[in-house]
Amino acid sequence: MARVEYEVEASPAEAEQGDVRLLVPADDVDDPELSIVIPALDEEVTVGDFVDWCKEGLERAGIAGEVLIVDSSRDRTGEIALARGARVLMTPKRGLGRAYIDALPFVRGRYILMGDADCTYDFRLLAPFVERFREGYEFVMGSRWRGTIEPGSMPALHRYFGTPLTTWILNRLYSSRFSDIHCGMRGITKDALTRMGLRSQSWEYASEMVLKAVRMQLRTTEVPVRFLKDREGRLSHHKRAGWSAPWKAGWINLRAMFVYGADFFLLKPGVVMLALGLVLTLPLSGGPITIGPITFSLYWMLAGLTLAVLGLQNFYLGCLAQVLHDYTGRSRRRWQGIFPYDRTVGLSALGFVAGVGLVVPLVVDYAQSGLTFSGLHTVHYLAVTGIMLMILSFTTFTFTLMLNAATLVRSEHGDARAG
User: Is the pTM of this model over 0.85?
Assistant: First the structure.
C-alpha cells in the first residue's frame, strides 16, 4: 500500500523541535468520529494484526474511525502499521504519557480510544465504548475485572496485589468507584482530554487521567474488556525493563495520586487537629484544670497550641490544593464564599489585636518582675491563648491572600484553556 507523507500544523514545542512527523496511508479515512490512539514501541510482531482488529471493531460498531499509531520504534512497527491503513505519528522515545500529549494535535475524531498495540486488549470488541460515548459519557474506562482475563495474561503480582491495591487507594482518596484504574483500554472525548491538560510523561498518565476525570466531574462509566496474554515471541515492556519495572510504575502512579489528592491528607486531618488543639487550649485560659488524677496545666496548653496551629495550616493548605486542582470552579466559589476577602481580613485583624491584648499583661508582668517570671499565674495562661489567636489570625490573613491569588491564577488558566 502506498503511503502519503505531509506536514500537519503542530504545537509551538513540536514546531521548534521538528521531531514529530505524520505519515498518512493512501486509503485514509475522511472525517472520523472515533480516533484510536496507540503508542507503540517495537511492536512489529503484533501491530499488523492490531490494526486489523481495530478496523474490524470499527466496522462492527458502525462508526467511522481512524487508527493513529504513535511510533517510537527502532523496528518496522511504523512501516507495518502504515501498510495496514493506520496513520503513523513518528516521535522520539520519551514516555508513554508524552506519546498521548504529542498525539493530541493530530487527533481528528470527536472521541478517543486508547490502548496498546500488543493485541492484549481485544479492540474487535470496541462497540461498548462507542455506545457509551453516544449516550453522553465523556470518560469510559475499560475494566478487566468486569470482563475476562485470559489465564497467563497478567502476572500474579499485578493481578492480586498491585492493581487492586492502587485502585483501592485511588478510590479512597477521590471517593470514586473504579474497579481497574490501570486498564490500558479506555476512552475519552477529545474535548475532555484537551481540557484535562495531561502533564505526566510516563506510566503515571493512567492515574493522572483517572483522577483528573474525577476532579473535572466528567460523566464517567466502565465497560468490560477482554484481556489476552502476550503472543508467542513477544516480550512485554515490563519484562524488557527488568524485575523492578512494576515497582517503579506503582510508585510513580502513587506519587501522582498523592500530589493531585493532597487535600485528602490535609483538610479533614487539619480540622481534627485544630478542634483537638482548641479543646486543649481554650478551657485552660483561666488556669490549670484537674480531672480525676490528671491535671491539665501549661504544658497541655502548649501542646494544644501546637495542634491548633498545625491543624489550621493543614486545613488551609488543603483548601488551596483543591483550588489548584479545580476544573469546575466549584472549589473556588466554595472557599471564596466561606472566606470572603474583606470580612476575613477584618476578622483576622480583630483576632490579632485581641491576641496582642492578652499578651500585653504578660509583658508588663515580666518587666515589673525585673525581667523574670516569678511563677505561673492566670496571666501566663491567657498569654498562651493570646499567642494562639495571633498565630491563627495571621495565618488566616496570609491564607486569604493566597486563596485570592490562587483563584485568580486558576481562573486565568482556565479561561485561557477554554479560549
Answer: no
Residue 178 identity (one-letter amino acid): F
Q: Residue 67: which of 23, 34, 22, 110 has the closest Cα?
A: 34
243 and 336 in a single domain? The answer is no
Instruction: Examine the domain organization and report whether 232 and 193 are in the same domain.
Output: yes
CA distances from 31 to 26, 39, 66, 107, 132 (A): 15, 22, 9, 11, 20
Whether 302 and 368 share a structural domain: yes
Residue 112 β-bridge partners = 35, 188
pLDDT value of residue 32 = 97
Specify whether 321 is located in the same domain as 202.
Answer: no
Out of 191, 226, 260, a domain closes at: 260
Mean pLDDT score of the chain, rounded to an integer? 88
Domain residues for 18?
3-260
Query: Are the C-beta atoms of residues 36 and 67 closer than 8 Å to each other?
Result: yes
Overall domain count for the chain:
2
pLDDT at 103: 95
Number of helical (H) and strand (E) elements in the chain, helices listed first: 16, 11
Q: Which of 209, 233, 260 is the last residue of a domain?
A: 260
pLDDT digits 0-9 by tens, 60-76: 999 999 999 999 999 99
Q: Which one, of 133, 127, 120, lies nearest residue 56 by Cα?
A: 127
Residue 237 — very low, low, confident or very high, per pLDDT cuts 50/70/90?
low
- CA distances for 220 relative to 142, 208, 210, 213, 214, angstroms: 11, 15, 10, 8, 8
Q: Are residues 412 and 270 in the same domain?
A: yes
